[in-house]
Hints:
Elements: H1 15-20, H2 28-31, H3 39-61, H4 67-91
Helix pairs in contact: 3-4
Amino acid sequence: MADEAPKPSGGGKNVGMAVLCYLGILVLIPLLTDAKNDPFVKFHIKQGIVLLIFDIIISVIIAIPVIGWVVGTIGWILVLILFIMGIVNAVGGQEKELPVIGKFGEKINI
């Protein structure tokens, strides 16, 4: 048996920049660098921007007394789950849309 180095997750794609796309405002780092020219990173930038917008909307909703607290808390839990799903997809080298909000990423032009 020959010693083989393990292959990086994502099959050599720019996984680090793709993961940054799901860390809130840090989506600006890949967006403002040459990494945005990589189709893999571009897909995750779009998904990350949609997720950031959704997070901002939830933050506004949670400021509404009583009903906003309930709806906002549920929305915040959904945002957290979507952040995790996005990071798992990026690390796995997959270009899977996020459930519920991912389809809006197609409409973003970069």
